[in-house]
């Protein structure tokens, strides 16, 4: 998130406690849109915070580590949990985006192929 928004990479890992967010302006269809990007803690003890952070969201970006099979396998539960806690109108049409991060790591360490990720996205209604 920090690298995407601030173009700075930190070699020090800092686990998210609760939630953190950054904002970034992007162009979408010739309009400037301000994205508020939330990083919510993956630990189960923080899941109850989701209601406060997810309500009113216009899109949900699910991120997994291509070198960690468990992170990919939890996408479904994160997606379901988001829909439960956000309670969007028309949940079957709510926009999701899936991003596989850490693609700059050694190819030999990759546990989730692009083909597998694309198949999962297609099974969920062609998530980009």
TrEMBL record:
PROSITE patterns: RAB, RAS. Keywords: GTP-binding, Lipoprotein, Nucleotide-binding, Prenylation. GO terms for cellular component: fungal-type vacuole membrane; late endosome. SUPFAM superfamilies: P-loop containing nucleoside triphosphate hydrolases. The keyword Nucleotide-binding applies. InterPro entries: P-loop_NTPase, Small_GTP-bd, Small_GTPase. GO terms for molecular function: GTP binding; GTPase activity. It comes from the Eukaryota. GO terms for biological process: regulation of vacuole fusion, non-autophagic. It holds the Pfam family Ras. NCBIfam families: small_GTP. Belongs to the small GTPase superfamily. Rab family. PANTHER family: RAB FAMILY, RAS-RELATED PROTEIN RAB-7A. This is Uncharacterized protein. It comes from Lunasporangiospora selenospora.
């Amino acid at each position: 998130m920090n690298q995407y928004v601030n173009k700075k990479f930190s070699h020090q890992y800092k686990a998210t406690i609760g939630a953190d967010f950054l904002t970034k302006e992007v162009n979408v269809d010739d309009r400037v849109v301000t994205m508020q990007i939330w990083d919510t803690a993956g630990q189960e003890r923080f899941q109850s915070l989701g209601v406060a952070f997810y309500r009113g969201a216009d899109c949900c970006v699910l991120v997994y580590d291509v070198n960690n099979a468990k992170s990919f396998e939890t996408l479904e539960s994160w997606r379901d949990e988001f829909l439960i806690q956000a309670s969007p109108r028309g949940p079957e049409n709510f926009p999701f985006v899936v991003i596989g991060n850490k693609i700059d790591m050694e190819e030999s360490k990759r546990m989730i192929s692009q083909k597998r990720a694309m198949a999962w996205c297609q099974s969920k209604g062609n998530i980009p």
